[in-house]
Automatic annotation (TrEMBL):
Origin superkingdom: Bacteria
The enzyme's E.C. designation: 2.7.1.217
Record-given protein name: 3-oxo-tetronate kinase
Annotated keywords: ATP-binding, Carbohydrate metabolism, Kinase, Nucleotide-binding, Transferase
The keyword ATP-binding is assigned to this record: yes
InterPro entries according to UniProt: 4-carb_acid_sugar_kinase_N (IPR010737), 4-carb_acid_sugar_kinase_N_sf (IPR037051), NBD_C (IPR031475), NBD_C_sf (IPR042213), OtnK (IPR050007)
Organism: uncultured Pleomorphomonas sp
Domain Four-carbon acid sugar kinase N-terminal, first and last residues per copy: 3-227
Keyword Ligase in record: no
GO molecular function per UniProt: ATP binding; kinase activity
């Protein structure tokens, strides 16, 4: 194994797998810490954790365990995959995980770049943008678990890391890999070993990747991986996912994301498919159990993919959180979808589309999937995936990814169809 990756959630890990597979690497996404060694043919291994919102000490422990396993597989470089919208509270765990990984690897310098231009995420002057809006002015300000109220990634990391945070600005990035290396060296010499790097285009990320060829640790969104396969002498795939056949078996769409794009996708899909809205308060009060939804699902027309969703507007989510607590609400919804997915799979479901990072993690854990094979891209940042050794085909989507018709496109791709 050449490149070892640690994802702080399952959808982001699939996103990274998509980028690396397109770049020509043989990729496997492991769902949690593997119990045995990897296949020697794997060039990039991604250990997908569900650590984004856990306490820093727990996230550090999980991440170090993943790093140790990856290093034991022979990895030369570790990539800590975070969300392209950063998705970490002021007292979140990203900074401390970076600190711990640097210490474990003996790294004196690390870069941080969440940019993903293909999905409108860019970093300029150390600030993260979503489209033409600062992150703090986007819908991420109202994220139910990781509200982002500050767009300055340097300042946000400064709240979390015990190390000083530096910055490489756009003029150095546009100077190419050599200029970036020189700027990184200046920051390290000045005592700022954790360095946020600007990027507004894919070409910037490729140059950053080239400049980082000798670094032991990188932190960022999947865009930062664009230039990494070339560092290992690997070129873009010429027959990407040629093995993919998909399945036309029974399907379901599960949505636990409350993002603006997912709510639009839910609205569009529900116009032409049976839909069941899961009310969080009903779960928390014990009024609604998975069996109820499974029985409803069984009564739907065969061959039609029903939608089961809990994707409320921010004000509704805030009201439930105020009554039951943020953590209790999140855990209850995740446990519900995990149990539901397990029961649906037992009934014969073969295709599952999931919206939401935390929901995707819960579903994969509920299904007991050990690893995922990366298939064709459905949308930027979202590949189709197949459970290794099992008749399960999935799409795991971060909340704001995809266009309004994403669910239909995902189902088509999982069935082996073409969406081009």
């Amino acid at each position: 194994m050449l490149l070892g990756c640690i994802g702080d959630d399952f959808t982001g890990s699939s996103d990274l797998g998509n980028t690396l597979a397109i770049g020509g690497m043989r990729v496997v996404q492991y769902c949690g810490l593997p119990a045995s060694d990897a296949d020697p043919a794997v060039e990039a291994g991604i250990v997908a954790l569900k650590s984004r919102t856990v306490a820093p000490a727990e996230a550090v422990g999980q991440s170090l365990a993943a790093a140790d396993w990856l290093l034991a597989q022979g990895c030369r470089q570790i990539f800590f995959k975070i969300c392209s919208t950063f998705d970490s509270r002021r007292d979140g765990n990203i900074g401390l995980v970076i600190d711990a990984l640097m210490a474990r690897l003996g790294a004196s310098l690390s870069i941080v770049c969440p940019a993903f231009p293909d999905n409108g995420r860019s970093v300029y002057q150390g600030h993260l943008f979503v489209g033409d809006r600062l992150l703090s002015e986007s819908s991420m300000r109202h994220h139910p678990l990781t509200p982002m109220s500050d767009s300055d990634i340097r300042r946000w990391l400064g709240h979390q890391s015990r190390q000083a945070v530096g910055h490489v600005a756009m003029p150095d990035v546009r100077g190419g890999a050599d200029a970036i290396r020189a700027a990184l060296k200046r920051e390290a010499t000045a005592g700022r070993p954790v360095v946020v790097v600007d990027a507004i285009a894919n070409a910037d990320l490729v140059e950053i990747g080239r400049a980082a060829s000798d670094l032991l640790l990188l932190t960022g969104g999947s865009g930062l991986a664009l230039g990494l396969p070339g560092n290992f002498g690997i070129g873009p795939a010429t027959q990407s996912s040629s093995w993919w056949t998909g399945s036309s078996g029974p399907a379901v769409v599960l949505s636990g994301s409350c993002s603006a794009m997912t709510r639009l996708q839910v609205s569009v899909f529900a116009n032409s498919h049976p839909a069941f809205e899961v009310i969080p308060a009903d779960i928390l009060s014990g009024k609604l159990v998975p069996d109820t939804v499974v029985n409803w699902f069984a009564g739907q027309t065969p061959g039609v993919a029903p939608l089961i969703y809990s994707s409320a507007e921010p004000r509704v989510v805030e009201a439930v959180q105020a009554e039951y607590g943020i953590e209790r609400t999140a855990l209850a919804i995740e446990a519900f979808f995990a149990a539901l997915a397990s029961q649906l799979a037992a009934s014969g479901i073969e295709r599952i589309v999931v919206a939401g990072g935390e929901t995707s993690g819960a579903v994969v854990e509920g299904l007991g999937i050990a690893s995922l094979e990366i298939g064709p891209q459905i949308a930027p940042g979202v590949p189709a995936v197949r459970a290794s050794g099992r008749p399960l085909w999935l799409a795991l989507k971060s909340g704001n990814f995809g266009d309004e018709s994403f669910f239909e496109k995902a189902l088509t791709t999982l069935a082996g169809g073409c969406i081009d």
